Amino acid sequence: xxxxxxxxxxxxxxxxxxxxEPEASVLSRAGLMLKSVKDNWSxxxxxxxxxxxxxxxxxxxxxxxxxxxxxxxxxxRNLRExxxxxxxxxxxxxxxxxxxxxxxxxxxxxxxxxxIASGLRTNAG
Length: 125
Fold this sequence. Notes:
The protein is mostly helical. About 75% of the residues lie in helices and about 0% in strands. The protein has helices at about 5-15, 20-40, 45-70, 75-100, 105-120. α1 (about 5-15) runs parallel beside α5 (about 105-120) and α2 packs antiparallel against α3. The longest helix is centred in the middle third of the chain and has 24 residues, at about 45-70.
């Protein structure tokens, strides 16, 4: 990858896609769900909350995968490929967390969710 796909995606939003507040809000929610689980790791309902947060994140990233594989998507091909690679990483990490729960494994996904959401808001107009 020639540049960080998170940064590249958010920079291109202003030029290619316009306002992306709905996506930013959904990504923020996904990150907040994971952060809440991480911050309350000892909670008695952790397993249920973790599963809910992982499923929500999987839905969000599946949506991005569908959008990025659409031939009509206006983002440059190399950027779409970089973000798809990032989504594959996220998928693998989420499955790894399901198999071997560990709060530290959540950090990278939380960071990615929040960073992309922030970039979408910053460049959304």
